[in-house]
Write a structure and sequence with these properties.
mainly alpha; 2 helices; transmembrane; membrane; DUF2909 domain-containing protein; transmembrane helix; DUF2909
Length: 64
């Protein structure tokens, strides 16, 4: 589960970087930027739901 969370965090950062690069490159309204940010939001929501399910099922305990 730890590896899955790390992969999702990396994908979220890549999507955010892609949106930033697209915004800086095109200097205007772009569907690429909006799409990259929508993907980031979708990945964030999916990660949040997976973490909640992991806590609920006992795959993730609250201890460090």
């Amino acid at each position: 589960m730890r590896i899955v969370v790390i992969v999702f965090l990396v994908l979220i950062l890549v999507s955010l970087g892609s949106a930033l690069a697209s915004m800086l490159r095109e200097k205007g309204s772009s569907t690429r930027t909006a799409r990259a940010l929508a993907i980031r939001v979708g990945l964030s929501i999916t990660l949040f739901l997976m973490l909640m399910a992991g806590f609920a099922t006992g795959l993730i305990d609250g201890k460090l």
